[in-house]
Amino acid sequence: MFFYEMREDKTMFDTHVHLDDSSFEPDRNKIIEGLYKRGVMYVLNASSDLKSSYLGLSIARKYGFVYCAAGVHPHETKNMSDNDICEIEKILINEDKCVAIGEIGLEYSKILV
Ligand SMILES: [Zn+2]
Predict the structure, then answer these.
(1) How high is the pLDDT of residue 35?
(2) What's the gap in Å between 38 CA and the centre of ligand 1?
(3) What separation in Å is there between the alpha carbon of 74 and the centre of ligand 1?
(4) What is the DSSP string of 16-50?
(5) What domains can be seen in the chain, in order of their start residue?
(6) What are residue 59's phi and psi, to 5 degrees?
(7) How far is the CA of 46 from the centre of ligand 1 (A)?
(8) If 100 and its partner were Cys, which of 41, 69, 87, 94 is the partner (CB 3.0–4.6 Å)?
(9) Contact by Cβ (8 Å): 103, 73
């Protein structure tokens, strides 16, 4: 298995996870703790909207090795308000565990009309 083949002198950083996704609710804590036990030393949770940004922040506050990004996925921008942008900006400015903006940008893997 991949995790057992990792060199001990390497640090593994998963830069894009969605631990805030509702599918993880039943066993989120177990999954997060499993990551660390398998050698993932840092995790960055990407957000999909304002609610997701706050949930990602709460997860990051709970686990020292988890950090979060705050943002709105391109497919979710139709549902966002100007206030959402202000709230995301506040998270980015005020929260030490929020270290990036994401998700943002363009999404071409699924074109929604
Ligand atoms: Zn993503």
Answers:
(1) 95
(2) 22
(3) 11
(4) EE-TTSGGGGGGHHHHHHHHHHTTEEEEEEPPSSH
(5) 11-101 (3.20.20.140)
(6) -65, -45
(7) 6
(8) 69
(9) yes
Q: Which of the residue ranges 19-28, 48-57, 101-110 would you say has the lowest mean pLDDT?
A: 101-110
- Give the global pTM: 0.86
Residue 13 predicted with pLDDT over 70: yes
73 C-alpha to ligand 1 centroid (Å):
8
Asked if residue 86 has pLDDT above 60, the reply is yes
CA of 48 to the centre of ligand 1 (A): 7
Q: What is the pLDDT of residue 113?
A: 60
Q: How far is the CA of 53 from the centre of ligand 1 (A)?
A: 12
Q: Which two tokens stand for residue 108?
A: 């071409």
- pLDDT, the chain, mean: 91
